[in-house]
Write a structure and sequence with these properties.
319 residues; alpha+beta; Serine Threonine Protein Phosphatase 5, Tetratricopeptide repeat; L,D-transpeptidase catalytic domain-like; eight-stranded mixed β-sheet; 9 helices; 50% helix; 13% strand; disordered N terminus
Length: 319
């Protein structure tokens, strides 16, 4: 009867953890001896006490009672060993011990060939062996995951160090340059200004744009940064924004577009530093777009750009 009940439960269980848990529950709850019906009064009492401890989650105390039953009533040792195996392997047992559970079930199989618990013990042995294999696989994968993360972190640290070295070398090379830039590329979406000489990148800078940066400048007051090809046509060493290079906006296309719309295209588009008195903002200024359409960098960066970009340099501004 007991074997058929467990087999039915296992057959209905889905594969995986839920089926394993239900197998444990059924295997324990259908043990008839736990709820009485024993021929020996003290053994029945011990079984009831073990059952009570188990239901309370006090698995250590339950196992102690099982040991007493085996010591004083060896005639029911096969049943008690089976119940001990269930307790050792029970999912909510914080001291869950698969090897001890296996030892209990294996002893039933080897020492009690005629026991009604022999077949159930064989089933439990298979289930626990599968669980051990799964746990070992999970542990191995977790170890590999931890190792992979450590490698990634190590590589990331190395990349950061290399980037810092590259930046330091670029700074050294930059300070040794004497030839001026012949092309300035401004990429609005990337918020990046790049200086070129003979097709080679001299240096790049993070920039802030007009407060309404998407799309080309159309008219005066729209707070947009222009898009197109221009030149540096003048410079101001006494700018209110710590040096300024004037960009030749509007070009012919800009004027045509504004004329068709019946508006003024505006002007005074510059590459400049920070407003006088606000130099302490430093690189933080580029976290937002704050100009009225100009391209802004830090004061130190503006001093470099002002020195390397002569009048007449081509400036291309991309969306």
């Amino acid at each position: 009867m007991r074997s058929s009940v467990i087999k039915t439960a296992v057959g209905k269980c889905p594969k995986g953890g839920d089926g394993f848990l239900l197998l444990f529950l059924v295997g324990f709850l259908v043990v008839p001896m736990l709820v009485g019906g024993c021929s020996h009064t003290d053994e029945g009492t011990l079984s009831q006490e073990a059952n009570q401890f188990f239901n309370q989650g006090n698995y250590g105390a339950a196992l102690g009672k099982y040991e007493e039953i085996i010591e004083h009533h060896p005639e029911v040792a096969d049943r008690v060993l089976f119940e001990m195996g269930i307790t050792y392997a029970y999912p909510t047992n914080a001291q869950q011990d698969y090897p001890k559970a296996l030892a209990c079930f294996q002893k039933v199989v080897s020492d009690y060939p005629e026991s009604e618990y022999r077949h159930d013990s064989q089933m439990m042995i298979l289930q626990i062996q599968n669980a051990i294999l799964k746990d070992q696989t999970i542990a191995k994968q977790q170890t590999e995951l931890v190792t992979s993360r450590q490698v990634l972190k190590s590589n990331a640290d190395e990349i950061v160090q290399l980037q810092e070295k590259v930046v330091a070398l670029e700074e050294k090379v930059f300070t040794l340059r004497t030839e001026p830039a012949d092309f300035v590329l401004i990429e609005k979406q990337a918020r990046r200004l790049t200086l070129f000489t003979n097709g080679d990148v001299i240096k790049t800078y993070k920039i802030a744009l007009g407060g309404n940066p998407v799309g080309p400048k159309v008219m005066q007051g729209d707070n947009k940064t222009p898009e197109g090809i221009y030149t540096i046509d003048s410079r101001n060493g006494n700018s209110g924004f710590h040096l300024a290079l004037h960009i030749s906006y509007p070009n012919d296309e800009d004027r045509r577009r504004a004329r068709e719309l019946g508006v003024s295209p505006g002007g005074d588009i510059m590459i400049h530093g920070l407003k006088n008195g606000f130099s302490e903002l430093g690189a933080a200024h580029a976290e937002v777009d704050w100009t009225e359409g100009c391209i802004a960098v830090t004061n130190q960066e503006m001093e470099e750009i002002y020195r390397f970009v002569p009048n007449g340099t081509i400036v291309e501004i991309l969306p």
